[in-house]
């Protein structure tokens, strides 16, 4: 199938110089979708600069907890009991990722799971950038009925053999990514690359209020909605670069942060700022480490002229927030 797809779209004679020098197409299966869930299997297909497959790798991982939705991924506690722990495979996993752009379907999820596992193992994944194949399919305007992996696979004639098996999902994604990459190169499309930051400060908050199914699995989302208290201060307007934050300012976040997003948001709230989930003309400040990412918030900030600072600068600003006037 890989060779057939190579001829489906001829490789451009002149390859864009700005494109990455290699890719690691990744899929991880997990015990669930929440931040305290764990990786139970991982697969990597390494591709060269033009998308040619170099090799592949797969491992199961002992999650040190119940395996979650076995009916989805098929990995039982008995299978995983003798599997290596993540810290035991972290070095080998890292060699598969090093110097490459991580490619995944809904890449932010895979990356956050990987970054958290490395943080638990007191390590760091050698990944600087990621590429989401959902975002790439949108850039290419592929006529897909939805953004599921099976739809992308069907578009390129790739046959799935074992859905939700990390190795087969990574194979399928690699086979679909290769013609996508060639099409992007031929059309001079800017790849939707996003910066990846390791977690340096994080917490595994226990999940509460979730109804457990048999086996202990709780169907929790990665970032469950959190009801924050309303900001008691009026919005004093936009942040003035070089100045101080003021209580009541509306702050939005975009992209990866080294400090877990919830922790940053909690600190902003405690300082008297209004944490906004979206960006509008009323937003005082956007915090992002990747101002060239092209996310919707970054694009809107550029359109509205909203000031932008990175995580480090925001951390310094949080230490000296101007109090709202009394009365």
What does this structure look like?
The chain has 327 residues and is an alpha/beta fold. The protein contains eleven helices and ten strands. The chain has helices at 2-8, 70-73, 77-81, 86-97, 107-120, 133-139, 149-155, 166-186, 261-270, 296-304, 311-318; strands spanning 22-30, 39-48, 53-60, 101-104, 129-132, 193-195, 250-254, 274-276, 285-288, 308-309. The strands form two sheets. A six-stranded mixed β-sheet has the order 3-2-1-4-5-6, sandwiched between helices. A four-stranded parallel β-sheet has the order 8-7-9-10, sandwiched between helices. 37% of the residues are buried. Mean pLDDT is 90; it is low at 1-8 and 207-215.
What key attributes describe this structure?
single chain, 327 residues, alpha/beta, 6-stranded mixed beta sheet, 4-stranded parallel beta sheet, 11 helices, globular
Radius of gyration: 21 Å
What does the average pLDDT come to? Answer: 90
Number of separate strands: 10
Indicate the percent of residues in helices.
Answer: 25-40%
Count of alpha/pi helices: 11
* Low-confidence sequence ranges: 1-8, 207-215
Strand order of the largest sheet: 3-2-1-4-5-6
Structural class given helices, strands, pairing? alpha/beta
β-strand amount = 15-25%
Shape: globular
Q: Layout of SSEs?
A:
Layout: H1 2-8, E1 22-30, E2 39-48, E3 53-60, H2 70-73, H3 77-81, H4 86-97, E4 101-104, H5 107-120, E5 129-132, H6 133-139, H7 149-155, H8 166-186, E6 193-195, E7 250-254, H9 261-270, E8 274-276, E9 285-288, H10 296-304, E10 308-309, H11 311-318
Parallel strand pairs: 1-4, 4-5, 7-8, 7-9, 9-10
Antiparallel strand pairs: 1-2, 2-3, 5-6
Helix pairs in contact: 1-8, 6-8, 7-8
